[in-house]
Design brief:
disordered N terminus; seven-stranded mixed sheet; globular; six-stranded mixed sheet; 15 strands; alpha/beta; Metallo-beta-lactamase, Chain A
């Protein structure tokens, strides 16, 4: 036992600051009172709290000698990044809503006079170490300091590709508010975010920042960033409503029936930002395929192909064994099958979801290894014009505020 304790103490001493901190005290007591917490862990809406552990099989495929398969997991050329400047973002959106995808799941949303930054990851690697771990495949489109004021930073969960310590530390020196799932605030406080700027929410809880409401909604995923996964921090998707518009960010999630419930309560949405990358047959319950992502979008919109769906959680980091371009191609195919309107911005390209047109070019085809048989000949046309039913979302009244966790 003494040797075991010494090893454990040694590992704790070597633990990088990026591992964050475990919830304790009143924060832990609040976690224990959560209806989503049982037997020492947070529970998913439909079970399966984490992957099934088939990592040996994953490694066999990831490192297999099929050179072409390995090459296809990364872009063959330089990923085109839109040259966005602060001046581009200075003028308010014409209709009150503008989205700028910064790569992966990071999105700057300007909604009804407020600026919301989802899952900001400006680091070079999504890892606790600066010498190892998945490295970004394209530069950050806009320097963090050039973004301008941000009213609220929203975090979906504590995995490294969604919660980046250097980015949080930089934002801690600003006046922004941080909206996070229950327990995640422990990491942020450990990195210097004042407790009075934290809004820590359980599923179905809502807080208000200025004139917008933010609701933590269920997702099917898991948590953890240390040497062990304690399941002591919650994961969430987010519904955000202003006076005139509503948007949804999925975070990371497997497909589940709860999307329809979220849409019925908080939708329809002018735009949904849906995870469609880093999926695998080895973890089907925690990440969606493009087809599942489109099903989720339809569920959120009451079964109608209304609003705009923007694919996220792809193109920036190599986190799975599927080809790099596959999530984009799959999203195009899924959208065409149901007549949904999708936006395909380059990293850093601002667009207004309620405008007559949205970015539509499958830009990845210019830098990905062309598949055998070539790219599909059909071009995206109908999806880019507002010819599908588009129910304009309306704002909500004053939501219930939730005290800082």
């Amino acid at each position: 036992m003494t040797g075991s304790r010494s090893l454990s103490s040694g590992l704790r001493a070597l633990r990088p600051a990026a591992f964050g901190a475990d919830p304790s005290g009143e924060r832990m007591e609040r976690i224990r009172r959560s209806p989503n917490y049982a037997d020492g862990v947070f529970r998913n809406p439909e079970g399966a709290p984490r992957p099934d552990g088939a990592m040996r099989e994953v490694a066999k495929i990831y490192f297999r000698r099929d050179k072409e398969a390995r090459v296809r997991r990364a872009p063959a050329g330089v990923v085109p990044v839109h040259s966005t400047t602060l001046a581009d973002l200075a003028a308010p959106p014409a209709d009150g809503l503008r989205l700028t995808w910064m790569g992966h799941s990071s999105v700057l949303a300007e909604i009804d006079g407020h600026r919301v930054l989802f899952d900001p990851v400006w680091g070079e690697r999504c890892s606790p170490f600066d010498f190892a771990g998945p490295k970004r495949l394209h530069p950050v489109p806009v320097p963090l300091a050039a973004l301008g004021p941000v009213d609220v930073v929203v975090i979906s969960h504590d995995h490294y590709d969604h919660l980046d310590m250097p980015t949080i530390k930089a934002l801690a020196d600003t006046d922004t508010v941080f909206a996070v799932p229950l327990g995640v605030g422990a990491h942020l406080e450990h990195w210097g975010v004042p407790a009075d700027r934290l809004r820590e929410l359980d599923w179905h809880e809502t807080t208000k920042v200025g004139g917008i409401s933010l609701t933590a909604t269920p997702a099917r995923h898991f948590c953890g960033r240390g040497l062990r996964n304690t399941q002591h921090t919650l994961w969430a998707s987010w519904a955000v409503a202003g006076d005139e518009h509503r948007i949804y960010h999925s975070g990371d999630t497997g497909y589940f029936a709860g999307f329809a419930d979220i849409g019925a309560e908080h939708g329809p949405f002018d735009a949904t930002m849906i995870q469609i990358g880093a999926y695998s047959e080895f973890w089907p319950d925690i990440h969606m395929t493009p087809e599942e992502g489109m099903r989720a979008h339809l569920d959120l919109q009451g079964g109608k192909p209304s609003g705009v769906m923007m694919p996220i959680h792809w193109a920036t980091f190599n986190l799975a064994i599927h080809p790099w371009a596959e999530p984009g191609e799959g999203t195009v195919t899924a959208a065409r099958a149901v007549g949904a309107r999708i936006a395909l911005p380059r990293p850093g390209e601002p667009f207004e979801p309620t405008a007559e047109t949205v970015p539509s070019e499958p830009w990845w085809r210019g830098v990905a290894l062309e598949p055998r048989g070539g790219w599909p000949t059909a071009v995206i046309a109908a999806e880019t014009v507002r010819d599908a039913p588009h129910d304009k979302a309306e704002g909500t009244g004053d939501p219930e505020s939730v005290p800082t966790g």
